[in-house]
Design brief:
206 residues, alpha+beta
């Protein structure tokens, strides 16, 4: 099986005609007119228009404790899931947006303290990916970290930032149920728990 290691084209094959900001706040919305190269041709598409949502880079971590056989997830209200048929309170990994030129690792260590009280030493980078590249520029950096988890969960977050976050400490035995019963609705937590599931299998086979 061939694995595609390099993209067919790079950004030089995109021609920007115009860019206009429609909104500028914590996120920005931009109207872009462009054309791009067609596969297997020297020609380009007609001019197309797209709305592009700009969000800062973000980073998240799944914290696990092999000694306790537990991992940490957080639960909080998410406006993007406000109309979710089950609940706008989503289960997620600990995560946050990078502050200026902050590194993903620094962001994760800060967010871990704020959202769980856990101090993290070593981090393992898993993936960096675009959660919704069809319309959003956000790049998400996903990590894992082994740490000593507290004995019980609690409520965390920065109240002055409108955060109200509940920490859940979950047994390894619950991973399959979480992945198969629809409770998880965002990509980073699903990817993180799939990785953790493989990590657990490897450690048990050693």
């Amino acid at each position: 099986m061939n694995i595609i290691k390099q993209a067919t084209y790079n950004s030089d094959e995109v021609k920007i005609q115009s860019r206009e900001y429609l909104f500028r706040g914590f996120i920005q919305v931009e109207k872009v007119s462009l054309c791009h190269r067609l596969f297997n041709q020297t020609e380009y598409t007609p001019i197309i228009q797209r709305e592009l949502i700009h969000r800062p880079e973000a980073a998240g971590v799944v914290i696990y404790d092999d000694a306790q056989q537990k991992f940490a997830l957080i639960e909080q209200f998410r406006v993007g899931a406000m109309d979710d048929s089950d609940s706008p309170w989503q289960l997620e990994i600990i995560a946050g947006v990078l502050d200026g030129d902050e590194s993903p690792e620094s962001c994760i260590r800060r967010e871990s303290l704020e959202e769980s009280g856990c101090e993290i030493d070593e981090l393992q980078h898993l993936f960096s990916f675009y959660p919704s590249a069809g319309a959003c520029s956000e790049l998400f950096h996903l990590y894992s970290a082994q740490a000593t988890l507290p004995q019980e969960g609690g409520v965390f977050g920065m109240a002055d930032e409108g955060e109200n976050i509940q920490l859940h400490l979950i047994d390894y035995s619950e991973i399959t149920n979480l992945l198969t019963h629809g409770r998880l609705r965002n990509a980073p937590v699903i990817m993180a728990l799939q990785w953790l599931q493989q990590h657990i299998k490897k450690t048990r086979n050693v």
